[in-house]
Structures are given as structure tokens and as C-alpha cells.
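Workshop exercise sheet. Pairs work together: one partner reads the sequence aloud, the other fills in the structure field after running the prediction. Swap roles for the next sheet.
Pair: D.N. / O.F.
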Amino acid sequence: MSMKVNKHAVRLILITGATLLLAGCTLLPKEEEALKPPLIKPVKENFELYEVKKGNITRKVNVSGTFRSSRTTNYYYKESGQRLAALKVKLGDTVKPGDILAELEVGDIETRLAIQKLNVEKAQIASMQAQQADPGQELTLRIKKIDIEAAQLQLSALQTQLEKTKLKAATGGVVTYVTEAKQGSLIDAFQSLVTLSDPTEVQLVYESGDINSLFGIEVGMKVEVKLNNSATIIEGKVLQTPSSAPSTDNKAQAERNTKTIIVGVPKETEGAQIGAYGDMTIIVEKRDNVIIIPRSGLRSYLGRDYVQVLNGESRKEIDVEKGLVTPTEVEIRTGLNEGQHVILNN
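Structure field:
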């Protein structure tokens, strides 16, 4: 059976389908147009600049020292094997010549000394009796005199022995050291028990923990000294440095000398006494009318010293030769001229 297709109906279906398609398209959401990227202005780099100029630069050493006597005497016994009886002084005591500093145990020396005094007297009496009994017996009288001399020699030896147990001050001074040995301790020969210091001969002493910090300090350099935070400045002078210290067989002293400077001040300076302290400023090096920049402007890498200068709106590296360096400034010997602008490290 054949079917006739109505052309009019087909046309109507096609028109209807097309209309539906168009309607469907209008129901879909419209895509938003892509936003254009914002225009970003390049950020201008900010530099911290320093204008190169000439000036004076000084390297100083600022330390604080303690006043010590330049004339000290150590007191000790010259024989070993005896025991300490008592220390008669303490730190800070002022002593006079002849004062007893320490004593050793005397044992029976005092008893033997008393007996020997009686023996001397006894020998003297016997001599007198012999002379009265027979003045003409020269040999007998000579023997009696010998007995007296022998007894006196023994007495003198015991007195010396007793005297050796007492450690006496040969000069006056202040006690700046006392041994920690206690009563009854065995004493070795030449073991320092007491140190006396002359309070009229004082010096400022500074012992550094860093040997390099004393580099460049020489004997004779002037030193500004402020005593005990006083506003008054006293002019001192470097008397000893590690390089000028005298040689010594004492290893401990030799080690101290390698990191010690000694500064002298005028005699009888008010406040300059043993134990006081003074702030010292020593001018080690000074350069006048030279190119100077802040330390933060100098850059170093693998042994190369250089700076960055502003060239237009960009950086430019320039090799330089540094000279005197302080904690805050550095001398530039070559590479920079006045008026240039150095970029500082942030």
C-alpha cells in the first residue's frame, strides 16, 4: 500500500522544529565575556642611598681595666715540710714593715730555746767560778769560754729557727692575695702565702678574651681614662702590650701576658686605687680627609670587596679597595669618588 505525503504537512513540521530549536537556544545561559587582565604598573625599586663624601675615620679600642699595683711582693717560706699554724692577715689589710703575715707550728722549739738560755747562763757562771778560783789557769778559763760560746751558738740557732716560723713583711702595703691553705696544712717551699702591693704605685690592667682585639696597640700610645664612670678624663699612656711583655718561665704568667695591656696614669691621681676600675679609650689608627662609607655599604664575596652604586634607576657593581675599618664605617681607598650614591644593604 502506498502512502501519499502531504507537502503542506511536511513544511509545517519543519517550521515547527526550527522554532523549537530557536526557543531552546534562548533558554541556555549566556556565557560571560572574559575579563581583560588589569594593567599592572611596574613597582619602582626603593634604594637606601648614601652620598659618597670625604671625612675623618678613627679606629678606637674601648675597654675597662682594673687598677693593680705595679709593685708587688710575694711572701713564702724557703723550706718544705712544716705545717701552717696561722695566717695573721686577710685580703685588704694594710700592713707595716715588720708585721707578721703568717706563722708555722713551732713544736718544742720554744721549750728548747728556754732550756738553752739556762745552759748559756750556766756556762757563764762556771766560767766566773773558774776565774775566781784560779785566775792563772789560762787553759781552764779558755775551756770555760769555749763552753759559753758553744752554748750561745746553740741558742742563736734555736732563735733563728723560731724566727723562721714567722713570715714578716719587709715593706708596707695592702694585702692583695692570701693563700687558701688552712691551719695544719703542709707548706711547700716557695709556695706564695701572701702578696703585698704598694698602693702608691698603681696601673690600669686589662686582660682581653680576644687577642685580636688588641691588635695595633703600641707602647706609648695615649689613652683617655675615665675613673669609675666619672666625667673627668685623665690622660694615660700604654706601658705594656702583648708584644712588649717581658719573657718569663712562668707559663701561666706568659699566657696572661699574651692578652694583657697595662696603662699608666699620673701618680696620685684621685680615685686611682687598687681595685678601682677605669674606662679606657685608645686611638689605634686615624685617617683624615679620606673617602668614607657606612659599613652596610660594603659588600664582600669570596675575597672580593665591592659596592653597588645607583646608575640611573638600576644597580651597578664597582670593585673597591678598603682601608681602615671600624664597627660603623669603612675607608675606601680606590673605586669610589665623591658624589656617587652607594646603595646600602637593608
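Discussion prompt: The chain has four helices and 21 strands. What would you look at next?
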